[in-house]
Every structure is written in C-alpha cells, then in structure tokens.
Amino acid sequence: MMPLPPREVAPGAVHVPGWLGLDEQRTLVSACREWAKGPVPIRHTVLPRGGVMSVRTVCVGWHWQPYRYTRTADDVNGLRVAEFPGWMVELGRRALTGAGLPELAAGYTPDTALINFYDDQARMGMHQDKDERSDAPVVSLSIGDACLFRFGNTETRGRPYTDVRLESGDLFVFGGPSRFAYHGVPKVYPGTADPVVGLRGRLNITMRVTGL
Ligand SMILES: O=C(O)CCC(=O)C(=O)O
Ligand SMILES: [Fe+2]
Fold this sequence. Notes:
Blueprint: E1 7-10, E2 13-16, H1 22-37, E3 43-46, E4 52-60, E5 63-65, E6 68-70, H2 86-98, H3 102-105, E7 112-118, E8 124-127, E9 138-144, E10 146-151, E11 162-166, E12 171-174, E13 183-189, E14 202-208
Antiparallel strand pairs: 1-2, 2-12, 3-4, 4-7, 5-6, 7-14, 8-13, 9-12, 9-14, 10-11, 10-13
Bound molecules: 2-oxoglutaric acid and fe (ii) ion.
Enzyme class: oxidoreductase
Domain Fe2OG dioxygenase: 109-211
Pfam family, one: 2OG-FeII_Oxy_2
C-alpha cells in the first residue's frame, strides 16, 4: 500500500507516513534490543513523586531521568549509557530531509535518543520535551504496533490538539514553533504491526539535541 503523503500537523510539526522501510525497521529493532540489555537495562522510569511510567525506556548518548540528562544512569545502575552512534546522527539528518527540512539537516547533530517500549497497556501522558537546552527539532520514529499520538499546543495540555495514528515506519518531526508543544500517546493498538517487523508492542525512538 502506498503511504499517505507527508502532512504538517502544526507549524513545524510534520508527520511522514511510511518513512522507514521494513529492513531499516528491523535493523532498528535489533539495535534497540541490544541497548535494552545494557549497559543500562531498559526499565520503567520512576517519577519524583513515586509514580512509575508505564512505558519502559532505555537511553543512548545521554541518560534522561525526570527531569534532566546525565551521562550515567544514577537512577538505574550508575553505569554510563551507550554511545550515540554515528549512523543514528546520519539517520536523524536524513529524517529532517524526509520531513521537508533539508536546510536543517547538515547542522543537525542529535546526541541523545530515548527509546520507549510500549506494551498493550502502556501510554504516555501529555508533556513537553523541555529538558534539552536546544531548540533543535525532535525526530521521532515509530516501529511495531500503531498508536494514537496526540499533538497539541505550547500553552496547555488540552485542546487544541491533533490526533494522529502513527504506524510502523512513520516519522514525526517537531521543531520550530512546535518544538515545545505538548504531546502524548493515549493508546496503543495491539497486534497491528506487520509480523515481519518482529516486534510485539510498540517501539518509539526520539532523537534530540541536549545542548549540554
Ligand atoms: O512514543 C511516542 O511517540 C512519543 C514519546 C515521547 O513523547 C517522549 O519520549 O518524550
Ligand atoms: Fe515527548
């Protein structure tokens, strides 16, 4: 099936359906499986007031914990997270070009990625990605089961927002006036992934520039 054309969901926020081919999706699944094992194993992030996130997360480059980045995972096992690989910088640059932002691509050097794994029950509340000291775009890749992705505004967690279904292989970039917009994942659609991707559940990779 032909993917739908790219769509600007909000100023600076672009959804590119079917951007990753199946081979690239499978390669990313393998890479994430390795990172999930360590040096810092994938885990449910514990929030400062004791809540536990339903997604499981592993980071590369810099470790995110609520609400800052460190090189070592002091809230997990104290080890330094895996290096941010050069091939993923290239992937991030290609993603910006794919999202119609070629002028930003050459200068884009993401230095952290949050890898989130969602099981059937997992979701993510509306939040801003604002622990980075850079306004460079966030590049988000989705693999496996589809989800409902809610992309809102920079002022409130509520309306106006746009609901987008993110499928395996989709790219979503948010930068410019949408860089600090609230967004979240209210729902995953279990069993919707193409079996050849080799994943039960949903994988999301967000690349960012920490500015650190
Ligand atoms: O899973 C997604 O599509 C979004 C993940 C996200 O917003 C985050 O990791 O900050
Ligand atoms: Fe986010």
